[in-house]
Amino acid sequence: MPCLRLSTNVSLEGVDTSAILSEATSTIADLLSKPKAYVLIELKGSVPMAFGGSEEPAACGELVSIGGGLNSDVNKKVSAAVAEILSSKLSVPKSRFFLKFYESEGSFIGWNGSTF
Fold first, then answer.
1. Going by DSSP bridges, is the β-strand pair 59-66/3-8 parallel, antiparallel, or unpaired?
2. Of 26, 51, 69, 108, which one has the fewest beta carbons inside 10 Å?
3. DSSP the chain
């Protein structure tokens, strides 16, 4: 179950967040070879944030994946794809976005009243 959490200082008012969530879900599922049904995307807007001392549009994120799927090649592709989504949908410059990657064992992730 991949979980992508994105935060940005850009307001999401008037933004088609469904399109962002859908595109991000498909992207993560495809690049990590995981079923869409298990991909979770969280998008938070209007988060007080400064990048390099500037409050211009910026974003940060974390991707947690259970049971593999992440490696240096995949991480580069995911980073590029998510940066493109944020750039095209929210006008966040690719240079003002960080994404952290984490692998987790299934026993450390709760789901459906149990763990994986």
1. antiparallel
2. 108
3. --EEEEEESS--TT--HHHHHHHHHHHHHHHHT--GGG-EEEEE-S----BTTB-SS-EEEEEEEESS---HHHHHHHHHHHHHHHHHHH---GGGEEEEEEEE-GGGSEETTEE-
Q: Structural domain tally of the chain?
A: 1
Please give the positions annotated as active site. 2
What's the N-to-C CA distance of the chain in angstroms? 9
Name residue 9's amino acid.
N
Confidence tier at 108 by pLDDT (50, 70, 90): confident
pTM score, whole prediction: 0.93
In a domain, 84, yes or no: yes
Q: Are 6 and 42 in contact (CB under 8 A)?
A: yes
The answer to whether residue 3 sits within a structural domain is no
Instruction: Give the CATH number for residue 23.
Output: 3.30.429.10
pLDDT at 100: 98
